[in-house]
């Protein structure tokens, strides 16, 4: 009889312990993320202007119609897609290359891991201002000294070059973080497989392509998800480096939303654009994860 009573009490105690540890996190997540998001969705259907005392009227989907007909929103959408595509490729290629380097048996491997990861610790605004100085001053000085054309490009005064400049800065910042994910995956590759392939006469490229790539496929899924979602949400580097110039052609969606709400005081349409961006990130991320997971199974 005591055992029967003890079992429900134990389960109740475990539930209280679970709620004690997880409950505050759930509460904070609901208060900081879920409720503000739902309020934001509501405001996207109103003419909210954030002016105290001004009435908030329900306007239906007119803010969404304005957003889709907004030429600057379309320009920012194209710039964001281009920037995201470049970042996903560059960050993952550089991050995987760095991971392959630091897992080798070299004395400075741990030092290199620290050095490569350190840019990720720098804030986006500071990073943007530092690299703005690099593009405007340092690159010009290097061009005058060396004559190399790459240093003489209009990195911040041309829209296409500005997007590449932001991608370079983001790659420099995030590649070390992604490297850590790939290092963890590479260290899980069985050495016996690599040794067997080497005995069979496989070279480094063949071992990487036929053994390493398939076994670290889950890491590619995670890394592509992180780089893609972060690139879509990029704001601070865009603000500090270019501010959308020239002529707002390099303005990403997050900066366009900020300007729409806080510069033009059109919070309703700005919130509608934010909701569109949320669903865009969600849909693209789910598609990417689905196809990458399917690819993992095929490998």
End-to-end separation: 54 Å
**Would you count the extended β strands for me?**
0
> Order of SSEs, N→C?
HHHHHHHHHHHH
User: Rg to the nearest angstrom?
Assistant: 25 Å
Query: Are there runs of 5+ residues with pLDDT below 50, and where?
Result: none
The oligomerization state is single chain
Biggest sheet, in brief?
A: none
Determine the strand fraction and express it as a percent band: under 5%
Structural class: mainly alpha
Summarize the amount of helix as a percent range.
Answer: over 70%
- Tell me, briefly, the overall form: globular
Number of helices: 12
Q: What is the averaged pLDDT score?
A: 87
Could you explain how this protein is built, in words?
- It is a single chain.
- This protein has helices spanning 2-43, 62-69, 71-102, 109-117, 124-146, 159-186, 191-199, 204-215, 217-232, 236-241, 253-263, 267-298.
- It is mainly alpha-helical and 299 residues long.
- It is globular.
Key phrases:
single chain, mainly alpha
Summarize the SSE layout with pairings:
Layout: H1 2-43, H2 62-69, H3 71-102, H4 109-117, H5 124-146, H6 159-186, H7 191-199, H8 204-215, H9 217-232, H10 236-241, H11 253-263, H12 267-298
Task: Tell me briefly what this model is.
The chain is an all-alpha fold and 299 residues long. The protein has helices spanning 2-43, 62-69, 71-102, 109-117, 124-146, 159-186, 191-199, 204-215, 217-232, 236-241, 253-263, 267-298.
């Amino acid at each position: 009889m005591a055992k029967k009573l003890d079992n429900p009490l134990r389960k109740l105690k475990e539930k209280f312990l679970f709620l004690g540890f997880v409950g505050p996190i759930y509460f904070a997540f609901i208060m900081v993320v879920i409720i503000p998001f739902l309020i934001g969705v509501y405001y996207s259907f109103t003419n909210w202007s954030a002016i105290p005392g001004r009435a908030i009227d329900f306007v239906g989907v007119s803010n969404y119609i304005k957003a889709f007909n907004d030429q600057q929103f379309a320009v920012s959408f194209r710039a964001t897609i281009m920037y995201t595509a470049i970042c996903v490729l560059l960050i993952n290629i550089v991050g995987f290359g760095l991971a392959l380097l630091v897992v080798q048996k070299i004395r400075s491997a741990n030092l290199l891991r620290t050095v490569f990861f350190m840019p990720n610790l720098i804030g986006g605004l500071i990073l943007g201002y530092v690299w703005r100085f690099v593009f405007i001053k340092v690159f010009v000085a290097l061009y005058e000294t060396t004559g190399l054309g790459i240093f003489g490009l209009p990195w911040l005064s041309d829209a296409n070059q500005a997007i590449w400049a932001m991608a370079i800065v983001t790659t420099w910042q995030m590649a070390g973080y992604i490297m850590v994910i790939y290092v963890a995956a590479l260290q899980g590759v069985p050495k016996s497989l690599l040794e067997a392939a080497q005995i069979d006469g496989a070279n480094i490229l063949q071992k990487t392509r036929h053994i390493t790539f398939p076994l670290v496929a889950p890491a590619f899924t995670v890394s592509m998800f992180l780089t893609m979602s972060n690139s879509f949400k990029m704001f601070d580097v865009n603000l500090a480096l270019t501010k959308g110039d020239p002529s707002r052609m390099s303005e990403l969606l997050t900066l366009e939303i900020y300007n729409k709400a806080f510069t033009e005081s059109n919070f309703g349409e700005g919130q509608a654009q934010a909701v569109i961006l949320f669903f865009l990130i969600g849909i693209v991320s789910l598609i990417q994860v689905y196809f990458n997971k399917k690819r993992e199974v095929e490998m």
